[in-house]
Amino acid sequence: MGLWRSITTWGAPPSFNMGLDEALLEDLEAEPTARFYSWKPDTLSLGYFQKYEGVAGTSSAGAVVRRITGGGAIHHVNELTYSLTADDSHPVFAGKLGESYQRIHAAIAQALATFGVEATIRGRDTVLDSERDDTGMCFHKSSCEDLVWGARKGVGSAQRRKNGRVLHHGSIKLGTTPLEGEIATVGQIAGKIDPSKVAEAVRHAFAEQLEMQFEIAVPTPAERHHAHVLGSRYLDPEFVRRR
Amino acid sequence: MRPDDRHYLSSHEWIKISGETGIIGITDFAVEELSSGNEGDLVYCDLPEVGRVLENGETFGEIESVKAVADLNTPLAGEVSEVNTAIEDHLEIVAEDPWERGWMIKIKLSNKDTGKLLSAAAYEEILAKQS
Question: Could you tell me which chain B residue has the CA closest to the CA of A143?
Fold first, then answer.
């Protein structure tokens, strides 16, 4: 599925993380890009349409941002976050929305298997042990394409589609947090693990299953500038509390 | 065959012209793509205020399903004259009937030039290439 840039940024600020993903979505000329990243400080991200008051964790989390992708809130601590950005006609995203999730999640499952995790796509009519009402957290709700193990959700994901482009956000839990509680994590099976190791396995699985060829890259100066400009709103209370 | 009494965008919105008014919604393909075929999968929709002036192709709203947020674009320019508030809390209406009861906004058209829009047949050709 062609050449992809692979951009890795560990411990980046939330405004940069969200700003760069949006910059990659907005740039109609940008090459297909996979990002692997983590957050500093620990950050709670709300889904685009979530009500701020409807997420209990906003009062106890340090930094809070609102994503441009939908779904529930995620506490970005002890996890590998990744994003994939390309045209919606790209073979990774083409066809029905559910099919793109299945394609991506099948590769993630292969990557997690290298750490002994037997992740499967949830499927229809399954209720998970990690389901909880009224927390607003992504990992406490599930849909049929989600990746689960041990009857709990372990990978959260969401997409934004705009101007013929797609941004796919994913969160692979390596450990849990008090806000997320009893969810599936890679750490439960593999012990303490560095997100860079998981990123390497995911990149390998993407290459093998989705025929993605990676070139290691850094954001261009223009992308950094655009990310900085776009990123400022992610911490703006007016945007974070817009609903 | 999709209804041929309206025009389409490749981003899956339709517009039906009735006198000076354009009625705008999304296609069954958009609903299926967003919802993976499950009616309850459409969860939020933001629509504009009455009186907002829209340019050709401008984003007038956003819709969220359990797995994606997507923009809603107007095929033609005009001023928003009516919003289908019935769907905001009942998106199953859009899933059940995207062509009639699931319309989203009406605009007072500032132009009726449909030359750059797709006919039903042309829209279906695009869908055929995507599948």
Answer: B66
**Of chain B residues 13-72, which have a CB less than 8 A from chain A?**
32-34, 36-37, 41, 43-44, 46, 62, 64-71
Locate the chain B residue with the closest alpha carbon to A157.
B67
Domains along the sequence of chain A with CATH:
2-240 (3.30.930.10)
Question: Which residues of chain A have a CB within 8 Å of the CB of B33?
Answer: 96-97
Residue-wise pLDDT tens digits, B21-40: 999 999 999 998 887 656 56
Are A49 and B69 in contact (CB < 8 Å)? yes
> Could you say which of A48, A95, A98 has the minimum Cβ distance to residue B131?
A95
Maximum separation of any 2 CA atoms in chain B, in Å: 38
Contact B68 A160 (CB under 8 A): yes
Inspect the interface and report whether the beta carbons of A159 and B69 lie closer than 8 Å: yes
| Cross-sheet strand order for the sheet of A43-46 | A63-66, A43-46, A74-76
Whole-number pLDDT of residue B36:
63
Domain boundaries in chain B? 7-122
Question: Looking up tokens 């967003």, which residue turns up?
Answer: B34
HSE toward the beta carbon, residue A68, CA cutoff 13 A: 24
What pLDDT digit, counting tens, does each position of A63-87 carry? 999 999 999 999 999 999 999 999 9
Distances (CA, A) of A2 to A14, A31, A214, A215: 29, 10, 9, 11
User: H-helix or E-strand containing A158?
Assistant: strand A152-162
Q: Catalytic amino acids of A?
A: 138
ipTM: 0.85
Q: With CA atoms as reference, report the closest residue to A158 among A143, A173, A148.
A: A143
Rg of chain A over CA atoms, in angstroms?
Answer: 17
- CATH (one of 1.25.40.180, 2.120.10.30, 2.40.50.100, 1.10.260.40) for B7-122: 2.40.50.100
